[in-house]
Each structure stands twice: as structure tokens, then as C-alpha cells.
Amino acid sequence: MPCFLKQPPPSLHGVTVIGQGKAMTSPHTAASGILQPHGPYAHDLPGVVLLLMISYCVLADINFPTHTICNGSGRPKEYRADGVGIPALLDAILTLMPLDAYVENPVQLMDLTDGDKAKGFQVPVWEEYRKICDKHESVPVNFEKVERFEFYERAKKVYAIIHTGETAAYANILLKRGVC
Predict the structure, then answer these.
(1) β partners of residue 29
(2) Which of 4, 54, 59, 98 lies deepest, with the highest CB count within 10 Å?
(3) CB 161 within 8 A of CB 58
(4) Cα–Cα nearest to 2, from 58, 78, 82, 117
């Protein structure tokens, strides 16, 4: 199952790979409330524990400069989920990790540039995120749109950035973990 972590291949030294492009499935059986690991990464339960301990994380689209932001001491840890879309990963993570109900905006999105706003550019993936977040939380979740370079600065302060295969424009999302 892709949300379980695997040791990186030698070519990605210092980067942890999640799922290596396998289809995302839910790690949780709703009826029993028991974790049901599946697939080749099912043995690596520490990955799930890691996701539950992260205070802030970014789910980054394919265009996000993850390696640049994570390169250096004191920077976020880089994880790879190549081939996995952010909506599927977000759904799986929120099955295990609640959002912070005590902050105004537990979800932050990279906002459109002024040029794209002037063109009327639409970001349909944001509505998918809203549906996923609202499905997992007891109250509607507030989202904040953050200017692109400010989003990069905030990303430098998170614990982990999970670089995905998401191809939708402006799909980057920053999550604040709540109390389990």
C-alpha cells in the first residue's frame, strides 16, 4: 500500500519512497476500525506512524521544487510518491490523521499568480480537496490561499514534503495535523 514507506533506492539517497506509483487504496477498514495493510509495503508500519506524528506537511505536485526546498540541514524531509495523485494520498492520510480543529486554516493552498487570476484560470482539484477534507472532518474545513513564494517559505518550515505524481496545476497543499 503506497502510504507505507519503503527505503529509498541508492539513486535517491536521503529520500524515502512511498508506493512507487502503485494505486492508492484506503489503509483503514471503516467497519472494524483496524488498520488493514495491503500490498508490497504492508510490512513497513513505521511509515504510518510517521504520518501520524507530523505536525505540518506538504503534499506537492509534480512541478513543486521539492528537492530544492528539502536540500540542506534543518530542511524538511523529502518523501516520494511518484505516480500517486494528491487527492488519493490526501484521502488516505486523512483516514489516519485529523486536521487541526483549533487553527483557523488547517489547510493551505498555493494561490494562483495574478496573471492566472486575470485569465480566469480554474483549479478543479481544490474542490476535490474540499470534499475529501469535509468527508473526514466533523465540521467544514477552512482553506487559506497562499501566494506562491510565501507558500515556498512556509514549505521550508514543515516536517516533510511528499512529492507526488499529481499533474494538476496549483495542486500543492499544506496540512496542519490535529489531535487524534
Answers:
(1) 34
(2) 59
(3) yes
(4) 82
- Span 109-161, pLDDT tens digits: 999 999 999 999 999 999 999 999 999 998 899 999 999 999 999 999 998 89
Question: Domain 5-23+42-176 has what CATH class?
Answer: alpha beta
Beta strands per DSSP E along 71-170 = 77-81, 107-110, 143-146, 160-164
3-state secondary structure of 61: coil
Domain boundaries, the chain: 5-23+42-176
Which helix (H) or strand (E) segment is 118 a member of? helix 114-118
d(C-alpha 99, C-alpha 76), whole Å: 19
Strands 143-146 and 107-110, by their bridges, are parallel
Per the listing, cell 511509515 goes with 47
Question: For 27-31, which contacts have Cβ atoms below 8 Å and span 24 or more sequence positions?
Answer: 27/1, 27/3, 27/92, 27/95, 27/96, 28/95, 28/96
| 58, β-bridge pairs | 161, 174
With contact defined as beta carbons under 8 Å apart, do 86 and 173 qualify?
yes
Largest CA distance in the chain: 49
